[in-house]
User: Fold this.
Amino acid sequence: MPINAGVEYGKAEQEYLQADTPEEKLACLKKMLSVAPSHKSAEKLQKGIKERIKKLNDSIQKSSKKGSFQKISIKREGAALISIVGPTNSGKSTLLNKLTNANTLVAGYEFTTKKPVQGILDYHGIKLQLIEIPAIIENFSKTENGPSLLSLVKSSDLIIFMFNSPKEKSLLDKELSNINVKRIIYNNEKNFTDIIWKSLSIIKVYTKQPGKPKDYPPVALRKNSIIRDLAEKIHKDFLKNFKYAVINGSSAKFPNMRCGLSHKLQDDDVIEFHIK
Assistant:
């Protein structure tokens, strides 16, 4: 590195040395070029960076045409799969650590997260799987793992958007334009877990035995589920020998309401099965 290259250049070069993927290295090289000295004695430095950019860019494009990306698969756990997406340094790892049992590295330099990281959010006994997707960049679908990561996002039940500026929001909208999954934006709300829950197409209901408190944990069901769906999920004999159910909660018109298999359930309902 030439004399008087500057603090910004030194920082950019350090980020390049810490980068893992070709896409990350390319972004760092471009940053190095933008902050490199412009005086005549630095021409050799600039030329070297430009050559590395061209070589790396050609390699990325060649790999993209061959379709050579790693297949990334995540075993689905819990009642819902939620993807956290955002550009670099948008706070994804911090949010994942805050909401779940994950222990993701949080650092001040770019591209800290190299692979999808997952954690489990316990929402009143219901397990929700959160996955932090590596930083979204320009032409994300053409990066080494882009297609596989986008496929993972597409299979999600909900996407959490994280960004620091309107420009970053536009980037996310552009790169995820072909994914038709409900999205919410993280704005540091204290009740964000409640916002996540209400944005999902699931409910939680409790079962109980006659004369006893409600059972814990609750059971997760799709919205608009009925008593029949709950009976089938608990045990086949509940449906086979069903007599009636006693409901307390939002779906009940009055306390201890009796109902049949077609009764539609709502969040936090408590159901007592009576069998023959």
